[in-house]
Design a protein that fits this description.
Number of domains: 1
Protein name: Metallo-beta-lactamase domain-containing protein
InterPro entries: Competence_DNA_uptake, Metallo-B-lactamas, RibonucZ/Hydroxyglut_hydro
CATH superfamily: Ribonuclease Z/Hydroxyacylglutathione hydrolase-like
Number of helices: 8
Radius of gyration: 19 Å
Order of helices and strands: EEEEEEHEHHEHEEEEHEHEHEEEHEE
Structural class: alpha/beta
Number of strands: 19
CATH architecture: 4-Layer Sandwich
Shape: globular
Helix content: 10-25%
Largest sheet: 8 strands, mixed
Strand content: 25-35%
Organism: Pajaroellobacter abortibovis
Length: about 350
């Protein structure tokens, strides 16, 4: 029996419908307009030294940006397996049986793609997106093959391909933020082949840039200022340059990073003092919340306890290593509040 899935598109001041065929029960998603009070929720999960963020759109669709690290990554110990289990548990709670409409992998480092296989096995995923690199990497090939076997649409986004497998409307714009060219061949530095994702809901916007560093940042057309910013590369000094932040003009920001003494962050020492200082300056607000940061003038592989220090940061800046899971909501009014 052929059934129909009906979505009412999100619009400012009105609505219209689009219909697609699906082998599932007919579902009508109510239309939402600017000023309606409908919420967009952004869930930054505490996955240690990695990134995993669920965007619950106001029309009940869901986008998952990255999936944290492999549960058994060498050198990570129990931290990675516990973070992996936590991610799956939280997704089950927050999705409540709904599909992941788009799984977006910013780039192919393990702390961003490592959980993709289990996500694909555990949840219904409608589309999988990555940057098309890593064709010779067994893990990446297996993930793409698994997606296709599960009838998940596999899409490449890169400088020559920006079309997304998810609908936008006048109130909800979902766009790829990709440079006109990669700064260098991607095998040299995969961080600088991160594919950014921008979501605008009326007057609120959020930008995810994975691990993009300054070399890629300067090539990006951001399509305007940003309300909420995922701080690049876990708060590394290599990212969040002053010129980039001056273009972003963010109101709020989140760093996803592991604790200093745990798992893989023993080798990376995120966040770095210099990056946090730059983000603080861009955000403003009340500098009243202490954050543990690494003095990146020192060598991380020889880090001492005294190389870590506590600095006061903006009350508009959160970090998963201190704050745990971070859920920020907006009604499209240009303001995000933590639940």
């Amino acid at each position: 029996m052929l059934l129909v899935l009906v979505f009412s598109s999100l619009q400012c001041g009105g609505s219209f419908g689009w219909i697609s065929e699906a082998s599932a029960q007919s579902v009508v998603v109510p239309s939402v307009s600017c000023g309606s009070g409908a919420k967009m929720k952004v869930h930054f999960y505490n996955v240690g030294e990695g990134l995993a963020v669920l965007i619950a759109l106001p029309d009940r669709r869901h986008i998952l940006v990255d999936t944290g690290d492999f549960p058994r990554r060498q050198g990570c110990g129990s931290v990675c397996s516990e973070a992996h289990s936590h991610l799956i548990d939280q997704l089950e709670r927050d999705l409540k049986g709904a599909p992941i409409d788009m799984l977006w992998i910013t780039h192919l480092h393990s702390d961003h793609i490592g959980g993709a296989s289990l996500v694909l096995r555990t949840f219904k995923v409608n589309a999988y997106v990555d940057n098309g690199q890593g064709k010779k990497q067994n893990t990446v090939r297996r993930i793409r093959t698994m997606a296709r076997r599960r009838r998940v649409r596999v899409v490449t986004v890169d400088p020559g391909h920006r079309d997304l497998p998810i609908e936008s409307s006048s109130a909800l714009q979902i766009r790829a933020i990709v440079p006109p060219r990669w700064p260098k061949p991607c095998h040299i530095n995969p961080n600088n082949c991160s594919i950014g994702l921008r979501v605008d809901y009326c007057n609120s916007s959020v930008l995810f840039i994975g691990d993009a560093e300054a070399e890629e940042e300067k090539l990006l057309d951001l399509l305007g200022s940003i309300t909420l910013f995922q701080v690049g590369h876990h708060g590394s000094d290599t990212s969040s340059s002053e010129s980039f932040l001056s273009k972003l003009m963010p109101k709020y920001a989140v760093i996803s990073a592991g604790r200093a003494e745990e798992g893989l962050n023993r080798h990376y020492c995120h966040p770095h003092t210099s990056a946090v200082v730059r983000v603080n300056a861009a955000l403003g607000g009340s500098f009243s919340v202490p954050m543990r940061v690494f003095d990146n003038r020192m060598r991380c592989n020889q880090a001492r306890e005294e190389d870590w220090k506590s600095v006061l940061t903006s009350d508009r800046l959160w970090i998963t290593s201190r704050d745990g899971d971070i859920v920020l909501t907006t009604t499209g009014d240009g303001v995000f509040q933590r639940e």
